[in-house]
Task: structure prediction
Amino acid sequence: MDKKWYELNGTDGDVVISTRIRLARNLEEYPFPIRCTNEVREEIVEKVKDAVLNSNSVISSRFSCIDVDNINAGEKVSLVERHLVSPEFISEKSEKSLLLLDDESVSIMINEEDHIRLQVMCEGFELDKAYEQASRIDTLLDERLKFAFSENLGYLTQCPTNLGTGMRASVMLHLPALQSTKAMRKISENLSKLGLTIRGTYGEGTEPVAALYQLSNQISLGISEKTAIDNLKNITKQIIAQELKTREALAKHLNIQDSIYRSEGILKSARLITCDEALKHLSNLRMGITTGLISNITLDTVNRLIVEIQPATLIHYTGKPLNPQERDAVRATLLRNSLGK
Result:
């Protein structure tokens, strides 16, 4: 099986961790999820599952179905940590299912805020590639399901901010230099004037973890998917250039170099390490790699570790319950083994 998107470093991967295209869709003959009874929500789950799993597409056999109501809390949180579902999707128990591609690059949330939230993830800066994949699967679904659509408003969604294309295009950016120089607030203010928004690592209402930020389009009504993607592309390129220029300047400072090398030493030698501490040091390590200070560790390895050391995901891959100290010990071992003792 192919590697998962978060195990790879892609185009412009020194700054862009990943690209995501998310499409919101609703079935024409049903009310929005918030107004559906449990019986209707169950019916929607079965219809969407059938449309994906029993289609003639070669990709259908690669999907598995996860009944979100029947997995434990830790497994649910791991799905969020791996960016496969939104935090809102796991917040309530009410007839939800997840269709997941084997390499975790495509996930289809059923009965989130809308009947369908189709999400495609790619490593690196790949907006066109992610959109093409999302569009193919969207067409596959539309052939078997009738989507709610208005000639004037476009795709109809529960939240008015998603009307029109129903698309959110986003890139996950690693911005340690811009964060450390206190530039993010001004950048955020300027982006809002351009119809874009920058949020924390897990989307709206979350804080940036390890200097990871989500940059996405805010406007979906009155513009085409191509226009939204091109706008996001152009702004992302500007932020990449600004981040790299700032990194280059910072990397010349002895205190920054010391911080990076200390992080490398801790990650390679610690026997106990919390998730927060590990993420801080991995962020420093990533900056060290991209500025040429560290040459014996790859970005692929760091990208993978940023996901795999998360608490619930660590338990998920270990396959057994772990108390906090056991988690810290397992995390430290994983880091040492992956980065070289």
Summary: The longest strand covers residues 16-25.
